[in-house]
Specification:
Helix content is 39%, strand content 20%. By secondary structure, the protein is of the alpha/beta class. It binds zinc ion. Residues 164-165, 215, 219, 255, 387 line the site of zinc ion (ZN).
């Protein structure tokens, strides 16, 4: 009897212990899950903060997207500029097309509902990946890379490096690498003929935010042409560049720097502005990297520097002077950036050589008088045959 009673008590105690243990395990598991989901929640909250746009309304997800594409007009942008992203999706009747945006480095860009992207002030000298996510449950996403150039400081010295006669992929690309690595810009006066041969190099110049301009189609001296032939040179070169970049150039560098009033008038009718130079490296004459380097290093604030991107002997010069000019405090900008920073305009049908320096002491400048009427004559042009 006693034995039976003991067994019963033992069984009850065992069941009790098991129940208590089960409760304990359940409580622990519940606790862990709760912590995990709070973690998730706080992570989501954090992510949400870095996104430019967050949908708060309840969306109709009945027809989800099956395809989402976002493309930027260029692979680079400068602080102070903005770009319109092209956003498209399939099917046309997708019910919720709202996107969430995320940047690989927090706080570097903002994107509006309409897809206008702006880099923030602190974002200069960064390359970021911008990712767009669908919010309709389709889990679609797409991304693109963006190189962000620092803002221009108009109170600091700057020069516009310009390259003529290109592109030549073998040399132009190495020069572009040097510019890209240093977040530096330049202006490329392409020959329409070469742009037609190597559109991908022209496209790379454009993507990197370089100014792509025309140096005519076949490098003829414009002052020797009839208006009809001149128009043909302009049309063919503009077409070749537009095919490569999607944009018509606004600047023209006349071969040999040769212009006269009649050329300027035709150029103006084509909404083009002529830009010559204030510092000629004479690279075509010396054919020597050291000599070209030394010439470029003589640049002063506001200079427009002339060299050629088609020559092998210039590659080393470019690799050296780009970082060295920056180390000396120069900003390397495009011609339009230089003129905009100095509040000077580049009107169609006019010719320019350089901008006034920031630290200008007297009103008398060569640039101002050149702009107004000093047009290079044919005879002068012949002395600069290499350009
Ligand atoms: Zn030339």
């Amino acid at each position: 009897m006693k034995k039976k009673k003991f067994k019963m008590i033992r069984n009850i105690v065992s069941i009790f212990v098991v129940v208590v243990l089960l409760f304990g395990i359940f409580a622990i598991v519940r606790n862990l899950t709760a912590t995990a989901s709070t973690d998730k929640l706080s992570k989501t909250k954090k992510n949400t903060k870095t996104m430019a746009e967050v949908s708060t309304e309840k969306a109709d997800n009945s027809v989800p997207m099956t395809e989402l594409t976002v493309s930027a007009p260029k692979t680079s942008i400068r602080v102070g500029e903005e770009m319109q992203l092209a956003i498209s999706h399939k099917p046309e009747n997708a019910t919720n097309t709202k996107l969430k945006w995320k940047c690989s480095k927090g706080g570097m860009v903002t994107i509006t509902k309409d897809g206008i992207l702006k880099p923030t002030k602190k974002s200069g000298k960064n390359t970021v990946t911008v990712k767009a996510y669908a919010t309709d449950g389709s889990k679609l996403s797409t991304s693109f890379q963006l190189r962000i150039y620092p803002a221009i400081d108009p109170s600091k010295p700057m020069v516009a490096i310009t390259f003529d006669d290109g592109p030549n992929p073998d040399t132009t690309n190495i020069m572009l690498d040097a510019l890209e690595q240093n977040y530096a810009k330049a202006t490329f006066f392409c020959l329409g003929q070469n742009a037609g041969y190597y559109p991908e190099t022209v496209k790379r110049e454009f993507d990197l935010g370089m100014e792509v301009a025309t140096h005519t189609y076949s490098h003829v001296q414009l002052t020797t042409l009839s208006n009809e032939k001149l128009q043909e040179e302009i049309d063919k070169s503009m077409d070749a560049i537009k095919k490569a970049t999607g944009i018509s150039p606004t600047l023209l560098r006349p071969p040999y720097g040769a212009v006269n009033k009649s050329v300027l008038s035709v150029v103006g009718e084509n909404k083009l502005c002529c830009v010559n130079w204030s510092l000629d490296t004479e690279d075509w004459k010396t054919k020597n990297a050291n000599a070209t380097y030394n010439m470029v290093m003589k640049a002063t604030d506001g200079d427009v520097v002339l060299l050629h991107d088609i020559h092998e002997y210039n590659v080393d010069a470019v690799k050296r002077f780009v970082p060295d000019l920056i180390a000396q405090g120069f900003q390397l900008v495009t011609v339009p950036e230089l003129y905009a920073a100095r509040g000077e305009t580049l009107e169609a049908g006019t010719i320019h050589y350089r901008t006034d320096p920031t630290t200008q002491e007297s009103e008398e400048t060569t640039a101002a008088s050149s702009e107004d009427g000093a047009v290079q004559t044919d005879t002068e042009a012949e002395t600069t045959q290499g350009n």
